[in-house]
UniProtKB/TrEMBL annotation:
Its cofactor is FMN; FAD. GO terms for cellular component: cytoplasm. Belongs to the MMACHC family. Its EC number is 1.16.1.6, 2.5.1.151. One of its GO terms (molecular function) is FAD binding. Its main location: cytoplasm. CDD domains: MMACHC-like (cd12959). It comes from Ibidorhyncha struthersii. This is Cyanocobalamin reductase / alkylcobalamin dealkylase.
Length: 215
């Protein structure tokens, strides 16, 4: 429910819907690369592609909207920002309140070792660890769900030591991706997918077999 999200954030970040409004958080799993992105790129090869992942997600969520012709469905993507440069929604907070992934933050560590350093939080999924992404929100303004019960996200990094290790890896060594394997995972990105996301955006087209014309 939108109210779960708004309840844990200051008013500047509230979603402008009644508290009981139904919303879904959309995640992409490791298999998205082969099952969705590559087929999308092959199909759209002759069209203008600016950001393959963002356009692929938009393509699939537009199909979801088509499944509900009698409902208003509002979509907010993870990359969208407001005129004041704030994100339209805080993806990790949304994933946490929906019970999808646990958002580990500095406040989850009792004996904080970082002093005045800025420490960012990170979501960990009980099945995929850090090998997933939060892509957007689907909101159904006409559907109110006052009796929906909130699911608590799985606390899969439950010890103080592991939480410190997670936040250290994410904040100071995020490039090596080791924070993603803070727990045993069922599935992770393929080597091809890792190479794609490790490549500067301007060079990713070549990895997908796209020409500069497509770009």
């Amino acid at each position: 429910k939108v109210g779960w999200y708004n309840a844990v954030l200051p008013p500047a970040f509230h979603l402008p819907y009644p508290d009981d409004t139904l919303a879904f958080v959309v995640l992409s799993t490791p298999s998205m690369f082969d099952k969705a992105l590559k087929p999308f790129v092959n199909k759209e090869r002759l069209k203008i592609i600016r950001d393959p992942v963002d356009q692929c997600v938009s393509h699939h969520l537009s199909h979801v909207k088509e499944k509900f012709p009698d409902q208003q469905v509002d979509v907010i993507f993870d990359y969208e920002i407001l005129p004041n440069r704030k994100p339209k929604f805080l993806a990790q907070t949304a994933a946490h309140v929906a019970g999808a992934a646990y958002y580990y933050q500095r406040k989850d560590v009792k004996l904080d070792p970082w002093g005045k350093k800025k420490i960012y939080g990170v979501c960990i999924h009980p099945k995929y660890g850090g090998w997933f992404a939060i892509r957007g929100l689907l909101l159904f303004p006409d559907i109110q769900v006052p009796f929906l019960e909130q699911s608590t996200p799985v606390d899969c990094v439950s010890t103080e030591e592991k939480r410190i290790e997670l936040l250290e890896r994410f904040n100071f060594h995020w490039q090596d991706g080791r924070y993603r394997d803070i727990i045993e995972v069922k599935e992770r990105y393929s080597e091809e997918q890792k190479a794609y996301f490790a490549t500067p955006p301007a060079d990713r087209f070549r990895l997908l077999g796209l020409t500069r014309e497509a770009q």
